[in-house]
Amino acid sequence: MELTPDWVVGFVDGEGCFHVSLQKHPEMTVGYQVLPEFVVVQHERDMPVLYALKRFFRCGVVRRNHGDRYAFRIRKLEDLKRVCEFFTTHPLKTKKNVDFQKFRRVLHLMGEKRHLEREGLVQIIDIAMTMNTASRPMLEKIRRELEVG
Amino acid sequence: MELTPDWVVGFVDGEGCFHVSLQKHPEMTVGYQVLPEFVVVQHERDMPVLYALKRFFRCGVVRRNHGDRYAFRIRKLEDLKRVCEFFTTHPLKTKKNVDFQKFRRVLHLMGEKRHLEREGLVQIIDIAMTMNTASRPMLEKIRRELEVG
After folding, report:
1. How many angstroms separate the CA of residue B64 from the nearest CA in chain A?
2. What is the reported pTM?
3. What's the CA gap between B145 and B118, in Å, rounded?
4. What pLDDT is attached to residue A149?
5. Mean pLDDT of all residues in chain B?
6. In chain A, is it the N or the C terminus that has fewer CB atoms within a 10 Å radius of its CB?
């Protein structure tokens, strides 16, 4: 299966997700690691499309997500930068583009090592909390912790 | 917003739905009307994309679906035939293409007026019941009715 840039943009407009999460990491000064990722989840019957996306972006992994759902996932910073270049030259057409811009901003802050200090991390959390639609109680909790600490 | 054919295929691979339902219609010999439709549902924030699809296909309507969700919907048989031509020359890449083939088969049967007689209607119901993933208790009920009747 050969994908074209426009098909990829349309499919990601529908099914893609730009996501930023935090993970406890005692060895880091701020105590948390920032984990940005680009994910596309599909039912297992559409695994061929996930592998086609992996070939298209020349990076990422396809893994089982939950039950009969599989995810194509890009997590490496270097690879995510290339994903950002792609969606900058081939803009998403839905409001997902707003999430993408925020995602790119987080990657930029990480490129400047801002996530390694408290102030930068709070800034990243503030961006992440306005991304996607679900509420992020965990991020809010960590943010309060960082404000107090 | 200008859409390209490939973007439309990618977006419909993710968000589109080919659906066949039945509605009671006492004036028809078989008692039921077949209602095929092509639908794309989005949150109201992405209404511009629905209107762009309407312009792209040069037919259909955009209406509120439920709550904050809006639907772009094509129901006219003549318009659906053009939609079928588009997705025949620009094939979907996910398993949604299987649903599309079934949808096209139903439209073909309707073109041959098979939905106006009991046997053809049962055939259409059998196809519709294997489309999409949700179970269709209403179609099963009507099918049993037609078998008995």
Report:
1. 18
2. 0.93
3. 11
4. 63
5. 94
6. C
* Three-state secondary structure call for residue A28: coil
pLDDT tens digit sequence for A83-107: 999 999 999 999 999 999 999 999 9
Q: Tokens representing A12?
A: 């990601």
Domain with B95, as residue range(s), is 5-148
Q: Within 13 Å and on the Cβ side, how many CA atoms surround B90?
A: 18
Q: How many domains does chain B have?
A: 1
Average pLDDT of every residue of chain A = 94
Three-state secondary structure call for residue B113: coil
Which CATH number is A130's domain given? Answer: 3.10.28.10
A18: phi then psi, degrees, rounded to nearest 5: -105, 120
Number of residues assigned to chain B? 149
Q: Which residues contact A67 (CB under 8 A, 6 or more apart)?
A: none
| Nearest residue of chain B to residue A14 (CA atoms) | B14
- Tokens representing residue A31 in the block: 């105590």
Task: Return residues 35-94 of B near A (CB < 8 Å).
Answer: 42-43, 45-46, 49, 52, 93-94
Closest among B93, B129, B128 to B107, alpha carbons compared: B128
Spatial CA neighbour of B94 closest among B22, B15, B38: B15
Q: Is the pLDDT of residue B133 over 80?
A: no
